[in-house]
Amino acid sequence: MPNLSLRSSSKTDLHEVELVTIYEISKLLSSSLDLHKTIHEVLNLLSSHLHMRRSMVSLVQDDELRVVAAAGLSEEEIGRGRFLLGEGITGRILQTGVPAVVPDISKEPLFLNRTGSRKLEEGEAVAFIGVPIKVGRESIGVLSVDREGCLSKRCAFERDVRFLSMVSNLIGQTVLLHHSVAIERQQLMQEKFRLQKELQDKYSLENVIGHSKRMQEVFSDVHQAAPGKATILLRGESGTGKEVIARAIHYQSGRRDGPFVKLNCAALPESLLESELFGHEKGAFTGATHERKGRFELANGGTLFLDEIGDVSPAFQAKLLRVLQEREFERVGGSRTIKVDVRLITATNRNLEEMVAKSEFRADLYFRINVVTIFLPSLRERKEDIPFLADYFLQRFNRENKRNLRISPEALQVFLDCGWPGNVRELENCVERAATMTRGNVIREVDMRCRKGTCFSSVLRDYGTTHRSVPIVAAVAPRRMAPPVEEREETPLAEADEPQGERERLVWAMEKCGWVQAKAARLLQLTPRQMGYALKKYGIELKRL
Asked: What is the CATH number of the domain that holds 20?
């Protein structure tokens, strides 16, 4: 590596310095996509290797020439470096595309000293050298430097012009490359936004909030299944929005102009359910004072949504099966066969496969309704949607109550940390409850019921263990009661070493199953979710074996 100082006047040494400088500049310009940073480092090289002072690169931006990088100038001075086309020496170099040399800028009236970085009254002659930065034949900027004390040193301006022209060519190619990269990046971003908008338009549903990946998958399934005629089964926990999705399917289908009729099968006893679905004739039973159409007739030409299909009794399942197969029925108390054109959407939060295995749900009905299945995720599986849902419910509350509430970041974090066993419905209630009870205009963490130990979900979940002396299985899952003590000889829990305390039973089950939570839940006849709540309640930390 040669000595990079110019103390030696040898032309050979100067040639080597210039060669090394060009090499270093070429490496710098290819090392980063930060254009301003690399140009600034190039100018620093010119200063340190060749003693070129106040070097600047100006580029055309918004129809004027602006200094984009400089060495030896302050930020304020760089900001003042703006020239119109043809203005001053710098503007003329850009306009003509020809290099310019001013041996003494103090004697040149065209030199504007726009940056204010030069003190011309101090007496020492300062030479200005500028060369155009070109891409092809087009000038896109100017590279300029100062040479100090040139009147007394017989400076080789021609050599400087030639060297700076090589540097400007390298800068020009780098600027072109960066512009090309920027254009390609902009095109890619535009294409990305276009595709995102296209996907959003295609896989989003009116009145359904779902930015998460899981909900986007649901939207995709809805758009795919809606145009057809197949029966659809919506599955998911209570409160996940199955009715909203059912409506979305209807309005995305060719039946959108027909009626959308819904019925909750769990809300009615079997005797009334038959009348509600199939209708009745006048005098069919006490109180039947006039003829009444059932939901199947009302939904003719449209969509019938049967919620909680898993709660229909086995006896009524047979009647329902015939309607689904033949699309015909008779009203209660009537003999006339009525044919209907109805698309059926059903929903349940129950394990139909387990019910079929236990002969609690007809296998033929199961296969009839389980043509297209769409699984709706629980809220804890789509936490990305919680801020949007909370904001939606709050804005609706504000409109209905003429309020202007907002949610603090701390309160929003409480929403994000919650397990939401009641899913979207529980979140809606929680937002409305907090908004109603908040005294100011901001819902804060202290306004949340869970921070006061009075969260409705936790009260309901813990009610069995805090108010009744029953096994934890019964307290957490009343539908899956543990068998009586005298019958436990036939169950996995009838081991001689089975503990009696509730916390001890949990620890015992976890240890017996190698701390695999799902296995322990099955052992205690709990769902994984209920097992998780119980472990959290009793502060039992999971062991990693």
From this structure: 3.30.450.40
Name the strand (E) or helix (H) holding 329.
Answer: strand 328-330
Give the DSSP letter string of 475-498: HH-GGGPPPPGGGGGGSTT--TT-
- Segment holding 13, helix H or strand E: helix 11-29
Range with top average pLDDT, 34-43, 402-411, 448-457: 402-411
Angle at 57 between CA 51 and CA 59, to 5 degrees: 170
- Kindly state the tokens that stand for 107: 């004697």
Structure tokens at 451: 């921070």
Distance CA 237, CA 253 (A): 25
Per the structure block, which two tokens stand in for 144? 């300029």
Q: How many CB atoms lie within 10 A of CB 156?
A: 14
- Using an 8 Å Cβ cutoff, are 363 and 356 in contact? yes
3-state DSSP percent of the chain in helix, strand and coil, to 5: 50, 15, 35
Q: Which pLDDT score is estimated for 482?
A: 37
Two structure tokens written together for 195: 């595709």
425 with 361, same domain: the answer is: no
Q: Among candidates 362, 420, 344, which has minimal Cα distance to 389?
A: 420
Residues 362 and 409 in one domain: no
Q: Given pLDDT bands bounded at 50, 70 and 90, which one contains residue 122?
A: low
Residue 366 falls in which region: left (phi positive, over 0), alpha (psi -120 to 50) or beta: alpha
In this structure, the answer to whether residues 85 and 30 fall within a common structural domain is yes
Could you list the residue range(s) of the whole structural domain that residue 317 is in?
Answer: 213-375
Residue with tokens 């699984």: 375
Q: How many other CB atoms are there within 10 angstroms of residue 76's CB atom?
A: 10
Residues 341 and 300 in one domain: yes
